[in-house]
Amino acid sequence: MELKEKIVSSYLAFENDVDINSEIHDIRTEAFHNFEKLGFPTKKLEAWKYTSLNSVLKNDFSIFPNKENAIEFADVKKYFIHDIDTYKVVFIDGKYSSFLSDTTHDGKDVCLMSSALSKSKYKAVIENYFNKIAKQDNLTSLNTAFANEGAYIYIPKNVEVEKPIQIINFTTGNDAATMVQPRNLIVVEENAHVQIIERHQSLTENAVLTNVVTEIFSAKNSTVDYYKIQNDKDNASLVDNTYIEQKTNSVVSVHTFSFGGNITRNNLNFYQRGEHIDSILKGITIIEGKQHVDHHTLVHHIEPNCESHQDYKGIFDARSTGVFNGKVIVDKEAQKTNAYQQNNNVLISDKATINAKPQLEIFADDVKCSHGCTIGQLDEDALFYMQQRGIPKKEGKALLMYAFANTVLESVKIPEVKQRINKLIATKLGVNIGFDL
Amino acid sequence: MSKYTEEDLEQELKTKEYEYGFYTDIESDTFAKGLNEDVVRAISKKKNEPKWMTDWRVEAFRVWEKMEEPDWANVNYPKPDFQELAYYSAPKVKPKLDSLDEVDPDLLETFKKLGISLEEQKRLANVAVDIVIDSVSVATTFKKTLGEKGIIFMPISEAIQEHPELVKKYLGTVVPTSDNFYAALNSAVFSDGSFCYIPKGVRCPMELSTYFRINEGGTGQFERTLVVADKGSYVSYLEGCTAPSRDENQLHAAVVELIALDDSEIKYSTVQNWYPGDAEGKGGVFNFVTKRAICETNAKVSWTQVETGSAVTWKYPSCILKGNNSVGEFYSIAVTNHYQQADTGTKMIHLGKNTKSTIISKGISAGKSQNSYRGLVHVGARAENARNFSQCDSLLMGNACGAHTFPYIEAKNKSAQIEHEATTSKIGEDQLFYCNQRGIDTEKAIALIVNGFSKEVLNKLPMEFAVEAQKLLEISLEGSVG
Amino acid sequence: MLKINNLHASIDDKSILKGLNIEVKAGEVHAIMGPNGAGKSTLANIVAGKEEYDVTEGVIELNGEDISELAPEERAHNGVFLSFQYPVEIPGVSVTNFIKTAINETRKAKGLEDMPAKDMLKMIREKSELLEIDRKFLSRSLNEGFSGGEKKRNEIFQMAMLEPKLAILDETDSGLDIDALRIVANGVNKLKSKDNAVIVITHYQRLLEYIVPDFVHVLHDGKIVKTGDASLALELEAKGYDWIKKEVNS
Asked: Model's pTM, two decimal places?
């Protein structure tokens, strides 16, 4: 049975587990019909021109992992940022793991989507924010249709969350290929601040497909600092759909570190609904083998006097493929917009491919918009210089690559995250050196 | 204090009439409207073409019939009704030209209005001109001078008669009949165009030039240009276009094929000033053009274009850099005003080793127009050491227009070096005040700033063309005429 | 030459000039000094006709004619030249092309033909030598990538080319090293005649050692509060502006 059919026929079974007489379920049903109509994206869609899911969709995914799989913390500790105190919302095969989690309701809510969707005390927030900015496209609709579990984070006015929040989704998939669809909602009220780290980690050699949707609302004067660490197994694919709405004077930054996985597709969408907003989108991609990472960004400048800064660096080895599709739209009303976009790529191998499409769509005249996109190699002269001073070629190369990607790391605000990323980069480049430049 | 602001300029732009808006009353011989296989055969017959040519057209027509009009470009327009167009229109009395004196005086007057009087061109510019009016070539000068060098430069209809082996060998090799909807249509119904062949090792001593005009209402113009530069040769080719104002939309779907054999160089410059429609967006030319070059080893092709006209422009002069060390260049200025829409750019396909390409695109949008750059830089797996530099700059005037950039970059070889930059800006109030303070009025200041903005491209045009292009830029954006 | 009477001006409803009077006669050099925010640059811009200022009261006369309704380029055609504190960059337009356009537009306004290319080149050569400007510099894009000194020298070069009746030098000395300052001052001095006038706006006395003013005015809070001869500049240099503020307030 094709995956689409399987999903469609599973919907009835899914309905057994949720309250079908709720407004939420009306939203699900509508999304379900939308997915039924649209199906999975194909390369014929302009947005999927350079990324094909065909090979992934061939897997016979189990849509509802029915076993409760327990994991020992010691086995998965390395996937946490464990050297600092954090809140944790952890899921195993799409089910909440209270054992691994550390949630709170103390002055803020860091908890579960399933309870937020069903309990009346969250009703107002859910009504105001759930599925309000998520697009009606193929995969987001699919996620919405089955939306039931994920992280629910609500930070009230003037609250500065004292420690970072980690959202981690493990898949064990011991028996078969597994598909999971977490759904996160993050609402940050006026003048509140939060730092979040998100990770999807497969613990199996079996195929995994994660189709996650995250909606983030950043109210007036709020700050959201978001880190996505993607370093999954070779058979794990990820479609990450993130939608962010910002209000006046808010600052939201999203750093995406893509070091592994099979096919990774990041759809990162910013909508600026207010003035003096700053949106920061940064990413480092270092991949090899047959890995494929596709960054699809959108920054929609709707109102005047806002800024956006995009900086994506990519290093591609072996037969890996990188895609960068960055779109900036500046509406007619969005005068005095400053929008910057940088995408720099290095191809290490003859078989690696990069496809880039940095687009600007500008309808206002008093704006500063620029994009730069380069594809190149490491500086051979610099490499030789380092060798001459006794640094072996491999380490020299690694240093150069690190320097190349470093502009992205500069804005990482959690030192432990930065250290972790440094370590991951070193591992990825096969060297054992510290990168504290 | 008398203020002359950008809004005033916009106001003036709105009321500006099309400078070349006149219609020369020459009796034309026009086919009835409509298109079917018989019409295609009739065109071929009218032109007394050999069977292979007729077959080629018919095959193209059959391909076209099955195709759908593309709609991926960032433009909106009412789809032309292909059965409402006439596919052939020739001046009834075809002048046989031994000297210019024999040319229909009305036609000569038309040329004068265009500022391209043949005598003057002959005297000043040392330019050989092939003029295509409503798709039929009426005058070719300098044939003799060129003939001595073995250069063939003639209407393609004549070339089909006189040099069938060359036309047959190269026609459709760069843009196959099935390439796209408009290329297929053109292949089926093209009425005339220019053919140019530069023999081995010959440096063409003068700029070759074709001037296209659409005169007859309700006709489509489908000209076909084929330029072949044999090994080690050089040619600079100019193409000028203009059409008088008409209320209905006129269709222009040309195909240009350039073949640059080993060590040759082709410079192809276009100044396009088809009627853009009036201030309300009524009328104007739909300009759907396929232009492509193939570069063999060490060959170089430069496309330079100044696009100021047409209601809708849809063209991507491209280079297939097949040979090692071949070079492709694209320099473009696209100006849109009122309701004009332009979706233009280039494709640089790097296949050979050490291939290089440069893209400089300057888009200027005013009024309610939409101006898009769409380009592809592709580096194939075997294209070692490919280099590309692209720069796309947009200048916006007023707040009702749009500027868009859609660059596609595909690299499959690690030694590729690709750089793409894009910026968007407006004319600053401080720049205008500075110019005003030095005695330069706002209108002139805008022309100066726009010229400065476009300079890198204007510099690439041959001298005679650069002057005309600068004038066109001013006309397209200035309030007062002349 | 220039007569300003009771000038009041504001920007975005903020009043900057509050009843300013000054008279400059042909052949004179006036210096306008004053602390930051006194309205010095505003005065220069208003005389040149910048539109973002609202002139709420007062008269500006040039050679007996009220110019307050004229567009900036018309004032320029009448001989007003402003050397900008921050000269503007115009990419792709060379210095030569720009000055040629400026001269010919001014001539056109006076009903004259374009200046013949030969004369233009000769003049450019002379004036660039006067300001020790390298010829290569003239083909660069206007002010783009120019150093502070180059920008100011280029302003005075344009002044030399346009031969204005009234030249206003707005902080022309800022950003200049001592050599450049001498070259610029030297240029200004050579261009000075009994038929034209110069207004030097400056913070410091430094420039006035080279361009010696006939009158020194102190601008404070939108008004000229003190006028003297060149020695006033020295006094200001030594004592600062505070004593003047006190004098005014008492």
From this structure: 0.82
